Amino acid sequence: MFKNLNIWFFLSLLVSIVVSIPILTVFTSFFENTSNYFEILKDTFLFEYILNSLTLLLGVLIFSSVIGVGCAYLVSFYDFPGVKIFKWTLILSFAVPAYIYAYSLTAFFENYGTLYTILKSIFGDGNYNNKIPKFDGMLGAIISISFSLFGYVYVLTRASFHYQSQNLIELGQNLGFSKKDSFLKIILPSARPAIVAGLALIAMETLSDFGAVSFFGISTLTTGIYNSWISFDDLAFANQLSFFLLIFILGLFFIENISRKKAKYHSPSRGGHKKKKKIRLKGSNSLIAFLFCGIVFFLSFIFPVLQMLYWTIIFPKNFFDLNVTELLLNTIYLVVLTSSVLLIFSFISNYGNRVTRSKLLNVLSTFSITGYAIPGVILAVAFITFIAWFDNTIIKSMGLFSIKKFFIGSIFGLVIVYFIRFYSLAFNGLKSGYERINRSIDESSYLLGYSKLKTFLGIHIPYLKNSIFLIGILIAIEVIKELPITLILRPFNFETFASKAYIFASQDLLEAAAVPSLFLILIASLFILVTSRYILND
Amino acid sequence: MPNNFFKIENVSFAAGGKNKVNNVNLNIDNEGDIICVLGPSGIGKTTILRTIAGLEKIDNGKIILKNKVLSSKEIHVEPEDRNISLSFQENCLFPHYSVEKNIDLGTNRQTMKKNKLDPKDIINFLNLEKILNKYPHEISAGEAQRAALARSLLSQPDLLLLDEPLSNVDQSFKEEIQVVLKKILTNSKITTIIVTHDSYEAFYLGSKCAIILDGQIKQYDDPYNVYHFPNSVEVVNFLNRGILIPAKVTGENSLENDDLGIIEGNFIKHYPKGSNVKLLLQPEDLEHDDKSNLKLEVVDRKFRGTNFIYTLKTPSNTLIPVFVHSHHIHQHEVDEKFGIKRPIHIDHIVCF
User: Fold this and answer.
1) Which domain holds residue A218?
2) Confidence (pLDDT) at B115
3) Size of interface A-B (CB pairs under 8 A)
């Protein structure tokens, strides 16, 4: 056992310890006493928090599975006008965070909002406000989150449909199945693991959502955690709420993991994949398919972009008042720093696993990727709790200076929590890259006289350069969109597009929120387009 | 020229507790010798090569190259410091480099050999010119194997290990490559251990052959002896070159089988008169002669290009293979009678 104790082991252990801090903090805090507020809330609001979270979850899962699977099915099996464009434009919804969608939805349908202005300009003055439907509260949150997250189901289901063998479909035809029977008995069951994995991801993100639900004023477990920390300064209670949320989330995490493994059975084997023949749609069927995908694309991406653009144009002052360069530089700074740290540690873990083949290291690495399942709010609050405890009990007892300021309200602390949240993205990305390099490649290199370092620099790095680029961009997309961690842990006067948009929106200055929101969407869209082939798993 | 160029002393080979080969002792006396290791699939041949290359560690014994201990319980020289090259059975080309760059990487090692190999010659010999600019995923398994072989050869190691080097090469091209490979190895004096399951390949390439069966080396000898004088029933069965029939020793140079009668020849090992033995009967030991009064029933006939193999049934229901040249007139159908020339004479009588 002790022969495994080397540098790789200790570095992997360090990563695992850092990641485990928030989880352990949440679990230990559950058994701590809290202020009286907990008693009040336990008897009154806790049930409401849970009920609201579950209602939101159910609504989002139903809505996003219908549009996600529907689009994936049409794009994968049918040929109709615009299908090639829809295939990749549908993933642009990833660029629109739910909270920005929520601002757009409200701005468009609110009293004297954009729709009112449109109706007025067409039909003249009138009492339109009563006739315009209002998408706020729970309904607004369900719509916003669904359009923002349906991409997970779309991407995973489409990949599963895409790689479904033509032989499987032809087999169904030979057995005399109708098109409907083929879909229900062959196509859909075979894509089920992918759909479940997509829905589990959506469920995790929905339960973690903070921006949209807080904007619509819905009390969920996430907003409860944030409020009990911000409004009532009760970290212990925040952590106790986190405990309930983590139970749900970890359940979903396991479902997602199991489903993803099953979904791998449907991935293409080399040389064994026969390209599917798409069915060409004609007439009304073609129009229905076009409208379905077109409306989903319009509502999920074009609509929020147009709304934000509209406001930016009619309120140009907001654009000139906002220091875009500073926000851009701050965002780039965070992206570069976070990506670098994540890539370095992911390389250490992956390379350590590869050269040592230690099962213990493998288990530690697997544990380290659980961070992505934990909501940003929980991570941030638990991190603060831990630092406060560590500072009060360990550092001060040793008579040293407080370390709080190094970790809380600092770039350093912000990057650590980003690291915990997005470690799986970098680790799994490199892991899948490494899985494509046969071990005998390394061994061949050693046997040609190359050292381990030369093999790493000369073989691994050049081979993985595309993976590194992709991981960097995926991390960038996440960091740009990330809200609660940034909001809670950012240094004073340090803003990103996301935090700026949230602050304006929370002050009811939706017009001003439009400019940072628009920039955020545009930058994220650019990154998504660059990586679209990878995201679509083509 | 040193004796004991390479030595394995009492080493047990095992990877992950599987494919264990116990207490192996093997010597390569001279630099430039080619050793072929033969054995059925899954018996641990590849593990032996991986261990010699330093990719697996050992718990007992020693592996010594040019009087330097490379592996023992205490010592483990890293693979990159051994100057041993291993060409894997599966594609092990670097996927992000062209074939040319892959081959060029073989020249990284500063060889101490006097006769340096010219990459152009190797590329030419192995017929790789047309695929030099291609990437590993664009070439066939056979081409990848030849490119990996070129890379290993160009590294001109002290010891070259080849794991089924031609298993993916087309049959039509295989013999040509075997000739070229033998020529390169011999001329450049590269000491080589080749693992193969193809006995013909082993007999052609190897100056010595090791037969591994049941977790140990059963026979280590030159190819002629392995073929003609197998030292155990297991080796006979593995090489699948004949059958064992019961016989009784009747004299210094003869024995008798109930079905075939008297068989004459030279015993390679002495047996007392009257001993009951099992005689190795190989397909080429019996000759066709329809004028003979010893006639056996044909139960099968296989056309093998240059020859036919008849399977004959004796009165005691033993099935005997008999080799007959294609051009010889012998068109006997199944169920017909097939004459065997008498007296039967076998040059080397192998009995157990």
Assistant:
1) 38-314
2) 64
3) 60
Selected residues 401-440 of chain A with any CB under 8 Å from a CB in chain B:
436-438, 440
Q: What CATH number has the domain spanning B6-236?
A: 3.40.50.300
From the CA of B333, how many Å to the nearest CA of chain A? 44
Per DSSP, A133 falls in state -
Name, in order, each residue with C-beta under 8 angstroms of B190's C-beta and a sequence gap of 6 or more: B32, B113, B153, B156, B157, B160, B184
For chain B, how long is the longest CA-to-CA vector?
A: 70
Residue A20 has pLDDT above 90, yes or no: no
| Average pLDDT for chain B | 86
Strands (E), chain B: 6-15, 18-28, 34-38, 62-65, 68-71, 84-87, 159-163, 191-196, 208-213, 216-221, 243-251, 254-257, 261-267, 276-281, 294-303, 307-313, 319-325, 337-340, 344-349
Ranges in chain B annotated CATH 2.40.50.140: 242-349
CA distances from A19 to A244, A418, A491, B104 (A): 19, 11, 22, 44
Of residues A282, A278, A280, the one with CA closest to residue A164: A278
Distances (CA, A) of A73 to A65, A195, A260, A266, A269: 11, 12, 19, 16, 22
Please, are residues A4 and A353 in contact by the beta-carbon 8 Å criterion?
no
Q: Note whether B46 contacts A: Cβ–Cβ < 8 A.
A: no
Position B180 scores a pLDDT of 87
Give me the pLDDT at residue B37, please.
Answer: 93
Q: Is the pLDDT of residue A271 over 50?
A: no
Q: What is the DSSP string of B190-203?
A: -EEEEEES-HHHHH
Judged by a CB distance cut-off of 8 A, whether residue B80 touches chain A is yes
Asked if residue A52 is part of any domain, the answer here is yes
State the number of CA atoms in the 13 A half-sphere of A175 facing the CB: 12
Band of residue B123 on the pLDDT scale cut at 50, 70, 90:
very high
The structural domain count of chain A equals 1
Residue A155 belongs to domain with CATH number: 1.10.3720.10
A334 within domain boundaries: no
How far does B88 lie from chain A, in Å, by closest CA?
A: 7
Quote the percentage of chain A above a pLDDT of 70.
90
Lowest mean pLDDT of A391-405, B193-207, B272-286, name the range.
Answer: A391-405
pLDDT score recorded for residue A270: 42
- Which of B80, B86, B95 is nearest residue A449 as measured by Cβ atoms? B80
- Domain membership flag for residue A524: no
Residue A273 lies in a domain: yes
Query: Which residues lie across from B13 on neighbouring strands?
Result: B21
Q: A445, B94: Cβ pair inside 8 Å?
A: yes
Mutate to test the interface with A, among B85, B90, B94, B110 (most CBs of A within 10 A): B94
H/E run at residue A79: strand A78-79
Domain B242-349 class?
Answer: mainly beta
Residue with tokens 């894997």: B88
Partner-chain contact A448 B108, CB within 8 Å: yes
Query: For residue A436, which residues of chain B lie inside 8 Å, CB to CB?
Result: 95
Q: For the segment B210-233, what is each residue's pLDDT rounded down to a tens digit?
A: 999 888 889 999 999 998 888 888
**Residue A136 pLDDT greater than 50, yes or no:** yes
Each residue of A293-305: pLDDT tens digit? 999 999 999 999 9
To the question of pTM greater than 0.80 for the whole model, the response is no
Residues of B in contact with A437 (CB under 8 A): 95
pLDDT at A266 > cutoff 60: no
